[in-house]
Amino acid sequence: MVKHIIIWQMKEELSEEERAAVKAEIKEKLEALVGVIDGLKELKVITEVMGSSNGDLMLDCTLEDEKALDAYAVAPAHTAVKDGIIMPNVKSRVCIDYKI
Length: 100
Fold this sequence. Notes:
Blueprint lengths: L1 E9 L5 H16 L8 E7 L10 E7 L2 H9 L1 H11 L3 E10 L1
Antiparallel strand pairs: 1-3, 1-4, 2-3
Helix pairs in contact: 1-3
């Protein structure tokens, strides 16, 4: 099994209302990928973070293996979310992948 963790920071120019809407849409669309992409076992998006956090939202997902992680990265359902809502609204991304 492989864990894939991402922390994003939203663009500063987004209003609080826009941030909330974007975060909710990212959560809804990414969590809907479970059962759609082979090898993706679990996925959750954390949108409510504490004030001490360096990021605005976090992706925590579990995949079968490295092959599944590679497939997830290029899966059309995933790239549609990434390119359509994530990339236009985030300024930074930190990622860590590790075996469990």
